[in-house]
Design brief:
By secondary structure, the protein is α+β, with helices and mostly antiparallel strands. About 50% of the residues lie in helices and about 10% in strands. The termini are far apart.
């Protein structure tokens, strides 16, 4: 069985040896345990009720058994199943609907145009655009004051390192500071919205919480911290990842400029090709056998999302980047079943509105300096992306 060292700082889910392992079998071994490499098996296991999210065990493996990270992560909605998950998701779902996302599209377009005005011949794209667009959208959606963007940006970025604890022993300190900061800030925001409600998601969730009393205040705070993290960090990396993909395929950028009707397919393709959620994991809650492989209770199964989303068995021609292709197999980075990501539609809408504007206003992007990356496991994307846009 191939062994892939996914926590090595230089590891890539698209390295030749990873695709060779995918061609040979549906899984490989890794420091994290079983690593699922093919799409069909990944999709089945993400839906398998013999697996859960294992939030407590995940932290325990990184030496965290108490404290701010533990108190946020373990009761988080993604680590709940059954009735508790439905109860928590119901509070968000009543306020965060497809109509809510569609109503944000004019704002997304206006924010994109304004940010594009500030892009120069050579720009650090993460700071100039990828970080700022989801912050602006998050603030418009949630009702977070724009004056708090800078401090929010640091917290909501650092909290995303929760999925990369195994890659760096110092990461936990950054995550803990971010959780503590966001907890305190959101507590104050709940009080403000309770006294002075407005037309925003937090006000609606606070009103529903007070009316129904089905969710406790700590649960409400946890939900809102998680929403802030999901609405910002994942999307900023996905936007940056899309631009990196177009630096490698400039003709596809030009094609999108000439055919803005391809925006929806282009977004799906950029998410498939270089997802911000590079890997997702599950924990076995019982001993079972899957495709002749025994999986012990307590063992973790990690889906290599980026590798599986290039699996030619699921996506014909999937090892090529093509914004004209119709990709029928579902993306894996948003999960599956009851835990399918609530923010998937919002992330898609931001890229679907932003990419046609950027391709209309600028030539194909090219990297002009050193790109620094998040670890391969967990939320993945560049922290620094120096670009120029060709004429």
């Amino acid at each position: 069985m191939p062994y892939l060292d996914v926590i090595d700082g230089d590891f890539s889910f698209t390295a030749p040896e990873v695709f060779a392992a995918q061609d040979a079998d549906w899984f490989a071994d890794s420091p994290l345990g079983m690593l699922v490499l093919r799409h069909a098996e990944a999709q089945e296991l993400l839906r398998d009720r013999r697996l859960d999210h294992g939030g407590d065990d995940y932290l325990r493996r990184s030496g965290i058994t108490a404290g701010p990270i533990h108190d946020w992560w373990v009761p988080m909605i993604v680590n709940q199943d059954g009735a508790d998950h439905r109860r928590l998701r119901g509070l968000v779902g009543r306020s965060f609907t497809p109509r809510t996302v569609d109503l944000l599209r004019p704002f997304i377009r206006a924010a994109t145009e304004e940010l594009a005005d500030g892009i120069t011949d050579e720009t650090e794209f993460v700071d100039a655009f990828a970080n700022r667009l989801p912050l602006a959208v998050m603030s418009e959606l949630l009702g977070v004051p724009a004056a708090d963007h800078d401090v929010f940006s640091v917290w909501s970025s650092d909290i995303g390192l929760i999925f990369s604890l195994a890659a760096d022993g110092a990461t936990a300190d950054r995550v803990e500071r971010a959780v503590a900061g966001l907890d305190g800030y959101i507590d104050g925001l709940i009080d403000t919205k309770a006294e002075h409600p407005a037309d925003d998601l937090i006000s609606r969730m606070v009103a529903a919480w007070r009316d129904d009393e089905t969710v406790s205040r700590p649960e409400l705070r946890n939900l809102l911290v998680t929403l802030v993290f999901g609405a910002h960090d994942n999307t900023r990396h996905q936007i940056s990842n899309a631009l990196v993909s177009f630096t490698e395929h400039p003709a596809q950028w030009t094609l999108l400029r000439d055919r803005p009707d391809l925006a929806g397919r282009a977004v799906t393709e950029t998410m498939r090709w270089r997802p911000s959620a590079n890997s997702v994991f599950r924990r076995a809650i019982t001993d079972f056998t899957y495709r002749d492989q025994p999986i012990a209770a307590g063992a973790f199964v990690t889906v290599a999302v980026q590798t599986a989303q290039r699996d030619p068995r699921a996506y014909p021609g999937g090892r090529a980047f093509d914004i004209t292709a119709v990709r029928d197999a579902p993306l894996l980075q948003f999960g599956a079943g009851p835990h399918y990501c609530l923010g998937a539609a919002l992330a898609h809408a931001q890229l679907e509105e932003a990419l046609p504007i950027l391709t209309r206003r600028f030539g194909p992007p090219a990297i002009t300096g050193k790109v620094t990356w998040r670890p391969a496991i967990g939320t993945h994307g560049p922290d620094v992306l120096p670009l120029t846009f060709q004429t």
